[in-house]
Amino acid sequence: MNRAFRKRLQRLADTPPAISRATELQETVDTLYAQQYLRTLTLLQPLTPDNAGSVARLLATTLQQASAEAQQAAARLYPQAPQQMQCRAGCSWCCYEQLQVHILDAVAVAANLTAPLHYRLETRSGHEVKRIFRPCPFLTDEKTCSVYEHRPLPCRAHHSVDVDRCRQAVETQDPERQVPMHLRYYSFPGLPQEATLKVFQELGIDHRPVVLGLAVAALTKDFAGVTADWLAGGPVFEECTVLNC
Description:
Largest sheet: 2 strands, antiparallel
Strand content: under 5%
Strand order of the largest sheet: 1-2
Number of strands: 2
Distance between the termini: 34 Å
Radius of gyration: 18 Å
């Protein structure tokens, strides 16, 4: 990466996010955010065009690990929340939408596929995408997730407390579908992602939401080339982004 990129990295590292200790909740939130912010900067330090694919994989893996840690912190703060969850293996009502995810979610999936994904979508409008009730490209005939270990953040964070409402949303194809859940608990797994997105924004790396299937399809065509272009600030995911129209 060029000298300007290195200088921005160092500037961000020299001014880490502050941690408030006003309350246990605030300290936990700030710590989770700050840790991932600095972790992302560290992982980007050795970035070159030649190792971009490896750096992207590591960023994705580390983010998923950080999200799991954040979820564990949420369970300590809100011990009643996990007990209210009704999600179980084989329940796939939330797998009938075209996920809008962060690019690293797509990287995590694509890096672990053994064959290219061929995927098309009629629209990328956020409003219209929400109305498409098509199975996720990674949902199997047995209603299980074929990429479960590498599933995107929305799949990790969502936890229904009323499966009947999830089922009804799919059966009636309700475009306003929402997963009923413990909102405070839900917000925790996304904290590390927010920190990573902030770093990318500061460095000029594309941090817009993308349609999972489209982004994975693009990555599986040329993983090394696509990740190198993306981390260099290129618009390689332009045709995968969710449009706010």
